[in-house]
């Protein structure tokens, strides 16, 4: 149906690659800059939601996509092996910040920061299934002070959540780290975003996909070897100091091995059961294998 997709210019155009403009993807971007791999791609930086929508629409060829969006459109994509954004324990940047215990939130207003669908769904499943509560949810911009003027709890994702993780306890608020909560609940790592390639692009340009995939893996390995330097360099323009950033980057899990895939499949199973996403096929996610 779309074999011509991405074939302009005799197949010579650079792959259109997405990059999440959150701190959680900064180490990978830093490695791409250091390795020079950016020269070979047409890089689009944006929020997770907008990048996911662009991938689904065919406006990007390869990029990170939130796990929920991938599950909703898995028939369009292959996953790139061994790269993801997740955590095997605390993630620090996907939180529920609350003014009362989570078990008391039934019928109470809970504000959803309008960013990552995966973090929001994880919060909803956790509150429903683990805490046994059904709050009254509403979506609003991710400003914790504003959210808690209108709600008893706020679901925060990304940089604003990382800030709340450090600042909220001093304000008498409880912070529930959803990466840790998932690990306590299931014993498995949590995968928040995966790297996917459109099936039509992978079929037409497997060599380019392989090059981009290898560039991401090299970048990931480079940044993991130099995390303190990544943190020092990021601290110059981010509102966090280098030790805070280093501990955050170390909390993140950028791999997608057997345990992470098991966590992904468990999340998919629960999401399908709650009606939030179609079930994965029994064989699990399909990977790009050059």
Order of strands in the sheet with most strands: 7-6-8-5-9
* Biggest sheet descriptor: 5 strands, mixed
What would you call the quaternary organization?
A: single chain
Overall outline: globular
Count of DSSP strands:
11
The CATH superfamily of the largest domain is known as Periplasmic binding protein-like II
**Rg measurement, Å:** 19 Å
Secondary-structure element order, N to C: EHEHEHEEEHEHEHEHEHHHHEH
Name the average pLDDT: 91
- For the terminal residues, how far apart are their CA atoms? 22 Å
Molecular structure report:
The protein has 290 residues and is an alpha/beta fold. The chain folds into two domains: 8-87 and 190-273, Periplasmic binding protein-like II (D-Maltodextrin-Binding Protein, domain 2), CATH 3.40.190; 94-186, 3-Layer(aba) Sandwich (D-Maltodextrin-Binding Protein, domain 2). 43% of the residues lie in helices and 21% in strands. The chain has twelve helices and eleven strands. The strands form three sheets. A five-stranded mixed sheet has the order 7-6-8-5-9, sandwiched between helices. The protein has a four-stranded antiparallel sheet with strand order 3-10-4-11. A two-stranded parallel ribbon has the order 1-2. Helix 10 (227-235) crosses helix 11 (242-251). The longest helix has 20 residues, at 206-225. Residues 1-10 have low confidence and may be disordered.
